Write the structure tokens for this entry.
Amino acid sequence: MLSDINLLPQREQRSFFFVIAVLILAAIVVLGSSCLIVYQYVLKQEQGRVEQEAKQLQKQIEVATSKLLLGVSASIMDQYGQIVEAVERLPLNTGLIIDQISSMLPTNGFFKSYSYVEPGVINIVVKFDNSAEAAQYVHHLTYAEWVDKVEISSLVKQERTEASQGEYEGTFLVEVNREAFLLRGEDVR
């Protein structure tokens, strides 16, 4: 007598809905993966197109910049050439200018500094004993025919010490009439 005793529970048969659910899930995964692959491909194509456009724009910018720089540098060189020619034609005789402005100084007045601010404009710093001498100096400069304009930047009273000379320090901007010095060395009063 043989008896078959099965202590394991019987397997349930898979339902039709489970198989359909697994197939639908697999189809969604396959469809999603294929959509992602297509989307990645489209993005790569778009990125390649954008990079190509960027390279073309960069080349166009370089070409336009080089053309602009060539045009600007040529015009700047022309301008510099014209400036150099003008300066060579109208040089200021610095020695004569210094002679003229120093001859107008009062007896106890002296220069502290002398510099060109721009062509034809001189910045001078002068020491005086009193403010009347400074006013006299400005008056002489104003009515000199070789001076177009005199501007007093400052007139400051200094503390007088034994080592220093001059109680007042004046700073003046003198605009020179360039045509008066065109004669180069002839006496201009």
